[in-house]
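debug: dumping io for the single-chain case to check the tokenizer round-trip. Nothing else runs in this session.
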Amino acid sequence: MVSKKDILILSILQEGARTPVSEIAKKVGLSENGVRYRLEKLEEEGYIKNYVVLLNPKKFGKNTFAIFNLEMEPKKTKEGIQKLRSIEEFTKIYQTTGQYSIKAFGLFDDEEDLTNFINEKLLTELPVRNYSVEIVTRNIKDTIYNV
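debug: decoded output
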């Protein structure tokens, strides 16, 4: 179980993972060594998975974000999941309940690029029985988990 100080440290890091330990120490009322110790403990216990740089896809020409609902051929689902992992356009893939047992999130240059992907990759390289695609028009909230 994490303490209130640990949660405060984690919330500061979620705002900016490059926040200097000295600044975190001042904000939470601990010594720098105390903060370092707590960070090491949080990492070892798995509360912190990684420190990452979040890239802006639009700066790389990826202006279309699409959500795919995929129904795989039942006998080829395992094979399909393996192939999905190797498709670079997909940034997140989840197995879910319901008719569409796979939700995949992908980034594309534009709608033409998305259409080409569907016709040249999705429908030719994967055992897809049925699918639907939704283009995201506005990002309202995009977090993984906040403390």
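debug: round-trip ok. The radius of gyration is 20 Å.
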